[in-house]
UniProtKB/TrEMBL annotation:
Domain of life of the source: Bacteria
Protein name according to UniProt: Polyketide cyclase / dehydrase and lipid transport
Lineage: Bacteria, Pseudomonadati, Planctomycetota, Planctomycetia, Pirellulales
Amino acid sequence: MNVVQPTRVSRTYNQRLAGPPDAVFPLLCPVREADWIEGWAPLLVISNSGVAEPDCVFVTSAKPTDAVWYITRHEPQSGFVEMIRITPGITACRLTIQVSAVADGSVAAVTYCHTSLGPEGDAFVASFTDEYYCKMMQDWESRINHYLLCGSMLRSSGE
């Protein structure tokens, strides 16, 4: 048995979203994300309902190997979802999102916790800086807000 201290990073960002939780929460789904994230195309989604639910599994393309996602908690009434993403040999990641109502829409507290599974994972964890995460979350925030306000995907060309 090889027990080691983890190489891990956890980051949280609070997105301000232009819609109530009941409009935002369904968009946090491997199928519905294709409505608002340009280029989002899971390779496989395993779901009884066809959308996000407990025990939904999906696979996304990643380098050097595809990532497997597993929805461990999906609680629409409380606005909470938790997913585990395993990129073999690279990282194990826990993603949690808590969507809460505010006067002008919602706040989504988005937390990624990455644990390295080896040397490539160590490099990834080191690169997952506050600056990198903030930029990633601001892009996500602008895309979902565009969809909530306009009903269409924000394209890289600015459409």
